[in-house]
Amino acid sequence: MSSGLVSSNTPQNQSYRILFVCSDLEDVTLANSFGNNGDILYLGKDLPDDRSPLSDILYLSKYDEIWIPDLNVQWTEGGRLSEGEIGALTEYVQSGGVLVIGLNTYTQSWSRKLDALLGVRVLRLESPIEDGEDLDIVFNERVYPYNDTYQAVIIRPEGAKVIARYRNGNPAITLNSYGSGVAVLMTFNPVKAYVEGNPSFVDLYREVSSEALKERKNPPTISNTKKTLILLKRVILHPITLGLLVFILLEILAYLGLMPLGLTVFFAAPFIPFWGIIKRRKRCTSVLEIISMMRGVTLSELSNEMGEKVRRLKFCIAILKLKRKISILDISRLGGRDYLITLHGLESEGVAAWAVEMYPRLMERIALHPGVTILDLARSSNMPPYEVLQLLREMSRYGVVEIRKMPFDYEVYSTRALLRWFEV
């Protein structure tokens, strides 16, 4: 809803937009007393709106006035005004907006920044147990009876102008020029005063509203540069954008070989469609040639053969893996501390080639003595039988050896993948 508040002190046909921040039905009743003059941001715990606009300067700057008459933490989703919200409201006033707050909003969201914005200093809270005339409000020589039991806050103006007082002389309404805008403090409860007290208070509020609008220098104005920076910040900090930036960063780290090999393979996948234009294509061809020649080579051995650091080879290995040219095997259970790289589909030959180099005596005895037992292999290789059995079981998974169970032992036979290394 757009507002249409017209003041006798402002040009006719001039419309103003007002935002009412409400936390219960009484606040809404006050907002509706302005007719169609305001939008409502409802923060009641029963069915709250999104509260984030209170810290959004671009949203706030759409309004000429913002009223937060009774932000009671007991009924408000999110509680008191946060430091970020007070900062945004301060920026809003500084840019030319009018902010009007009441007793509970001020006392329950008090901060030094809020005092600076309002141009006042809090002294004490008056909580009479009986109604009297001391807190009746005098504005433009008219008296508005106020129920003292609704409380009032006693303040000392420090730059703010007092435009209404209580009968006892204390400030009832202050107006502080801040930047290009105006901040108004009603030291009483403006909602209770209208809803449960005197409906004529709405006339007082309209006049205060008009005076504040007259005092401001210009409507809320945000420069195009600042708008652009705010929007850019929102785009950058959006979860989707942040996720995309993190993904791009990980892609770069993968391309540079600064990630573990398994993660490098994962993040190399998006590069496959652009393989034809990737500069490392020639290096990858050399990697494939060495693997083809050696059948099975560890990452560190490949690094030594090519004379390049391991990290410079990871990306090529990942691409070749994704193109199903090679296989990457974790040989930690075979006693290795590295990855073994083999041709795809020839994993058994690669593991056999590595095993012949890693365990030469053991592999030779298996190849030249078909049916040799685990106990014989353990004695000849000076290894515990259990370790020999565990090692050969892992090799059998890759098709390097074949293990057959006997009543009290196991017989071990070499496969073609292992035997070829001992043929004359």
From TrEMBL:
Protein name from the UniProt record: Beta-galactosidase trimerisation domain-containing protein
Chain ranges of the Beta-galactosidase trimerisation domain: 81-208
Keyword presence, Transmembrane: yes
A molecular-function term among this protein's GO annotations: beta-galactosidase activity
GO term, biological process aspect, one: carbohydrate metabolic process
Keyword Transferase part of the UniProt annotation: no
CDD domains tied to this protein: A4_beta-galactosidase_middle_domain
Keywords (A to Z) from UniProt: Membrane, Transmembrane, Transmembrane helix
Membrane spanning residue stretches: 235-255, 261-278
